[in-house]
Amino acid sequence: MELIKDYVITLATMIILISAIELIAPDNSMKKYLKFVLGLILIAVMISPIIDIFSNSENIIVSNIAEYFELDKEDDKSIEVSSNKEYSSSTLEMFKENLEKNCNRLLNEKFVNQDFESNIICNIDPKNIEYSIEKIKVGVKEKGTSKIDKVIISTKEEKKSEKEVNNKDEIVSYLMEIFAVTKDKIEIYKINE
């Protein structure tokens, strides 16, 4: 970056100097020769960085590349240190959230008349890039307006019957196929509106 800055400063200085010389030069037959010489000087200034690169700047380029790779290694070491201290819980939590979002998205694409809320309990091994699912809990809500249930007012306490999801078996088999888990690891429940 410093080389480019120096090049631009030198070039601008030479253009200003050449313009000043042309302004104070007398108008005679020598002026065209003076312009020719000043043009050659300007061309020499413009190609000097290219000549430097092909001649002695090879060592500078090699040292700059080596310096870059040293900085890159230091960055990698700092990443390793931070990841070994804690495979940050936020990173693992983000993985779990993304897994849940993907589950919701896939279910919404397959079953368009329903909305889903997933909660996946899993163990994540970031070193081997593996995860194992312990439990998938999926809440299902029907889209659109729902029927109002019959309201029974009674003095006796009655057990609320849990509502069943219409296509529970289809959802379970789809999740078994996607996540390669057994049926006992999947729990489907209806979301009360």
From TrEMBL:
It comes from the Bacteria. InterPro entries: Spore_III_AF. Keywords: Membrane, Transmembrane, Transmembrane helix. The chain crosses the membrane at residues 6-24, 36-54. This is Stage III sporulation protein AF. It comes from Clostridium isatidis.
